[in-house]
């Protein structure tokens, strides 16, 4: 939408194709269905719940949009969240004897989370760009490694944050500004920045160029390796950010933290219209994709029409449908 | 070979009264509301080369696709051996002996040469593949085409001309009665073109009917027994050998008289040296090359494909690792990436615009500004400045597109090339290296490119032109470096810039050699 304003007049302004419009229509349909099935659906308490739970996936999905647009993939984000959350909690608990149960400890924990995210992303990116290993392989390996590390750190159980520290940290998830919870605000800011970066900066342009044709990008003086590496680092930092917001929610990390989040994240990106093969990505689409997945989950929980256990099946159908729509557009060109 | 019938020249006249093997009768074709072909009637006779020429967009490709079953005609008849046929798919046409050699390579990159040649027509022994006979047959075909590559070589690893030869070998293996060749020599050097012509003579002698398209009119004049000229979806003229010379062909294609193709040459002015390259090597492909380029000069680089011209320039541009010293305006520079090169004022227009030059799935604006994006960026990209740059490029380079936001992949080759030239010029370079400026471009647009190149030199840019089309180097350049096996075999200037001298240097012939190029 913002695109039309930067283009010269004479562009086919109202030529919306189903693929661009599809995700939004689906989102509107879900809202209507949700309201018809249960009027509580639109209550601000419910909306707040849905949005703050979607925020974790959403923040990561914005980063994932850049990775996929540049022709990459990251399967490790779910277990990375668990690993970062685990380390954060252990560091914060470990600092209590020295610093007491204070905001200082929490700030250190947050810093550790963000830096750990950047480091993990950099590790993924370096293995992919410098060693030339397939992104799928590298991040599949990292996914298993992080998951195993967090299980080991928790000794098969749960790593819990010190209770009184947890109650200081809690407002970061449950508190907010003007009645809007922090995770929602952070998600919105990340999404807006991501949309601007994708559409209006050289970085976004370069990601799309690399994903379309790496050789053309190289001949056009684009630092292919650095731009790619940066997509993984940014994603890592966003995973760190998601973890920083996640830890105060439950105050613990375990083997099952962030389970299958990588798939939900990638699904949101694809539902939003970004091409899995790279070369074209849109952040606003990803945001719509995140909301669709969040709402389906919520509607199934609020109504007894379909068992919530079928949530996964419905999500799966939607993912496949989204790609079918993409194909339909590509072949009609 | 068949020595009994292999008298290349005189044989063909005798065959013309024979019935055509394949004919199109009043064929029409529309895409949606737009009619692309009007009343196309064309006959392919056994043992005859029928050349189909026309500018890009004249309808040659559509005609060939209809002949070979890739497209259906909207109206009209296809007649094979006197009986009307409908090919519902290209496979059906192939089964009836009609084979198309594609211009865009349809080879599976990860399969071997041999697997590609027999793809879909594998030889079998019972249920299993007969690897032995396929390899032997492949060897024999490649030998016939004088292309010494290993049948087991991975297709991705062989050169572009070799890929073209593999396409030809593939068609030969099908034992076609009608062979349709879509610009087979566009990617071939003079030597390989000669090999191909020898095969064409051989196929003629065997009674194959051949449809041949090319933008190189000298080739057409040489090998065609019959020439059909298309323009805007109509057949303008059909003539027998000798009835139409090259100028008349070009005029019939363009529909207007072509003045001289090339602007007047600019003799070397002895101005200051802009680029000084010394002892420059690229891997094991380019060895110790030294040359200099003057301000406002158009320096030619000739040589066979594979002589290291492209690799040399890619080394200078920083997309291949290289060693040696490079000085720009007298100051030594180190170029390790395309970005270094652009910062030093040197740009490169790659040989393969679809692989290395343009992003086919993006619009003109994004393609245009990609190389010089910094100039349009101050934290955010200035969309209005981009649009203004596109406006200017469209005017300066006469870019014709159905709309501003058309995907570059949907534009014609000539217009793509114009976008690419506009793109590299946006970086405001001092030195412009253009690799194959007019590959796969029609005559009218070629002439425009020659004018552009001239204007660049006149405006003070220093230009290097690499071309496998001898006329292009000769017509454009006052000084030509001829490369052979990774070295500069010689440099010719002024009156020495002629086909004979350049070919001799390129082939490594003795200076007082015996006249056989």
How is this structure best described in words?
Chain B: Its main location: membrane. Chain B: One of its GO terms (cellular component) is plasma membrane. Chain B: This is Monosaccharide ABC transporter ATP-binding protein (CUT2 family). Chain B: It is found in: Cell membrane. The complex is a heterodimer of chains A (about 325) and B (about 525). The relative contact order of chain A is 0.19. The model of chain A is unreliable at about 1-15 (pLDDT under 50). In chain A, a hairpin with a 2-residue loop joins strand 2 and strand 3 (about 180). Chain A is globular. By secondary structure, chain A is mainly alpha-helical. In chain A, about 75% of the residues lie in helices and about 5% in strands. Chain B is of the alpha/beta class and about 525 residues long. Chain B has 17 helices and 24 strands. Chain B has a six-stranded mixed sheet with strand order 6-9-10-3-11-12, with helices on both faces. In chain B, strands 18-21-22-15-23-24 form a six-stranded mixed sheet, sandwiched between helices. Chain B starts with about 20 loop residues before the first strand and ends in a 10-residue tail after the last helix. The interface between A and B is medium-sized, with 28 and 34 residues.
Q: Estimate percent helicity of chain B.
A: 25-40%
* SSE string of chain A, helices as H and strands as E: HHHHHHEHHEEHHHHEHHH
Question: Unreliable runs of chain B, pLDDT <50, ≥5 residues?
Answer: 1-16, 512-517
Please mark out the parts of chain A with pLDDT under 50 across 5 or more consecutive residues, or reply none: 1-16
| Average of per-residue pLDDT values of chain A | 87
How far from one another are the termini of chain A? 21 Å
Major sheet: arrangement of strands of chain B: 6-9-10-3-11-12
* Overall number of domains of chain A: 1
What kind of sheet is the major sheet of chain B? 6 strands, mixed
Give the largest interface.
A-B, 28 and 34 residues
Helix amount of chain A: over 70%
Derived structural class of chain A: mainly alpha
Silhouette of chain B? globular
Strand order of the largest sheet of chain A: 1-4
What's the alpha carbon Rg of chain A, rounded to whole Å?
A: 20 Å
């Amino acid at each position: 939408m913002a695109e039309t304003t930067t283009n010269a007049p004479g562009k086919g302004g109202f030529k919306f194709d189903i693929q661009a419009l599809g995700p939004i229509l689906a989102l509107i349909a879900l809202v209507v269905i949700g309201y018809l099935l249960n009027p509580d659906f639109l209550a601000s308490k419910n909306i707040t719940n849905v949005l703050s739970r979607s925020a974790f996936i959403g923040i990561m999905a914005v980063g994932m949009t850049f990775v996929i647009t540049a022709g990459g993939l990251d399967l490790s984000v779910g277990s990375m969240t668990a690993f970062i959350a685990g380390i954060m909690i252990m560091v914060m608990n470990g600092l209590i004897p020295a610093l007491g149960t204070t905001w200082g400890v929490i700030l250190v924990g947050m810093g550790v989370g963000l830096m750990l995210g950047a480091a993990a992303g950099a590790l993924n990116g370096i293995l992919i760009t410098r060693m030339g290993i397939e992104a799928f392989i590298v991040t599949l390996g990292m996914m298993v490694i992080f998951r195993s590390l967090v299980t080991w750190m928790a000794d098969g159980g749960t790593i819990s944050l010190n209770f009184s520290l947890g109650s200081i940290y809690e407002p970061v998830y449950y508190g907010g500004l003007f009645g809007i919870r922090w995770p929602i605000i952070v998600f919105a800011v990340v999404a807006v920045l991501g949309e601007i970066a994708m559409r209006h900066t050289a970085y976004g342009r370069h990601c799309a160029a690399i994903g379309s044709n790496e050789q053309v990008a190289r001949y056009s003086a684009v630092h292919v390796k650095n731009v790619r590496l940066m997509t993984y680092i940014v994603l890592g930092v966003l995973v760190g950010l998601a973890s920083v917001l996640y830890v105060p929610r439950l105050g613990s990390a375990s083997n099952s933290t962030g389970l299958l989040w990588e798939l939900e994240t990638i699904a949101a990106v694809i539902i939003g219209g970004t091409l899995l093969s790279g070369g074209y990505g849109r952040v606003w689409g990803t945001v719509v994709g995140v909301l669709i997945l969040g709402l389906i989950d919520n509607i199934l929980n609020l109504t007894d029409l379909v068992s919530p256990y079928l949530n996964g099946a419905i999500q799966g159908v939607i993912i496949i449908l989204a790609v079918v729509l993409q194909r339909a557009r590509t072949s009609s060109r | 070979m068949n020595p009994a019938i292999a008298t290349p020249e005189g044989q063909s006249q005798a065959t013309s009264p024979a019935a055509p093997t394949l004919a199109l009768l009043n064929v029409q074709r529309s895409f949606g509301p737009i009619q692309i072909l009007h009343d196309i009637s064309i006959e392919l006779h056994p043992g005859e080369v029928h050349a189909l020429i026309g500018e890009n967009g004249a309808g040659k490709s559509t005609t060939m696709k209809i002949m070979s079953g890739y497209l259906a005609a909207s109206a009209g008849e296809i007649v094979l051996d006197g009986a009307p046929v409908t090919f519902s798919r290209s496979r059906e046409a192939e089964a009836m002996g009609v084979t198309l050699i594609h211009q865009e390579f349809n080879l599976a990159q990860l399969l071997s040469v041999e697997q590609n040649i027999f793809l879909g027509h594998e030889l079998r022994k019972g249920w299993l593949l007969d690897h032995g006979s396929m390899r032997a047959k492949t060897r024999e075909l490649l030998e016939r085409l004088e292309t010494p590559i290993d049948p087991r070589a991975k297709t991705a690893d062989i050169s572009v001309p070799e890929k073209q030869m593999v396409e030809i070998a593939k068609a030969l293996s099908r034992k076609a009665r009608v062979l349709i060749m879509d610009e087979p020599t566009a990617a071939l050097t003079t030597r390989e073109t000669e090999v191909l012509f020898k095969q064409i003579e051989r196929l003629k002698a065997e009674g194959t009917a051949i449809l041949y398209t090319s933008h190189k009119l000298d080739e057409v004049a040489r090998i065609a027994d019959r020439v059909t000229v298309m323009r805007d979806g109509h057949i303008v003229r059909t003539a027998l050998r000798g009835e139409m010379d090259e100028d008349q062909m070009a005029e019939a294609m363009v529909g207007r008289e072509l003045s001289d193709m090339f602007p007047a040459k600019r003799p070397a002015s002895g101005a200051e040296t802009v680029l000084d390259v010394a002892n420059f090597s690229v891997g094991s492909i380019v060895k110790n090359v030294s040359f200099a380029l003057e301000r406002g000069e158009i320096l030619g680089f000739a040589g066979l494909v594979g002589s290291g011209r492209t690799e040399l320039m890619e080394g200078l541009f920083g997309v291949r690792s290289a060693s040696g010293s490079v000085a720009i305006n007298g100051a030594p520079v180190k170029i390790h990436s395309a970005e270094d090169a652009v910062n030093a004022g040197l740009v490169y227009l790659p040989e393969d615009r679809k692989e290395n030059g343009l992003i086919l799935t993006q619009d003109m604006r994004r393609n245009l500004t990609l190389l010089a994006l910094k100039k349009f960026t101050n934290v955010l990209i200035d969309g209005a400045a981009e649009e203004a740059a596109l406006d200017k490029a469209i005017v300066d380079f006469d870019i014709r597109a159905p709309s501003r936001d058309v995907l570059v992949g949907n534009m014609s080759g000539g217009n793509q090339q114009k976008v690419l030239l506009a793109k590299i010029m946006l970086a405001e370079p001092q030195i412009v290296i253009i690799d194959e400026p007019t590959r796969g471009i029609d005559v009218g647009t070629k002439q425009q490119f020659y004018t552009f190149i001239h204007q660049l030199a006149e405006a003070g840019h220093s230009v290097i032109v690499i071309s496998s089309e001898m006329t292009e180097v000769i017509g454009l350049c006052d000084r030509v470096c001829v490369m052979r096996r990774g070295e500069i075999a010689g440099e010719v200037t002024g009156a020495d810039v002629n086909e004979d001298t350049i070919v001799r240097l390129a082939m490594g012939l003795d200076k007082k050699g015996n006249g056989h190029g």
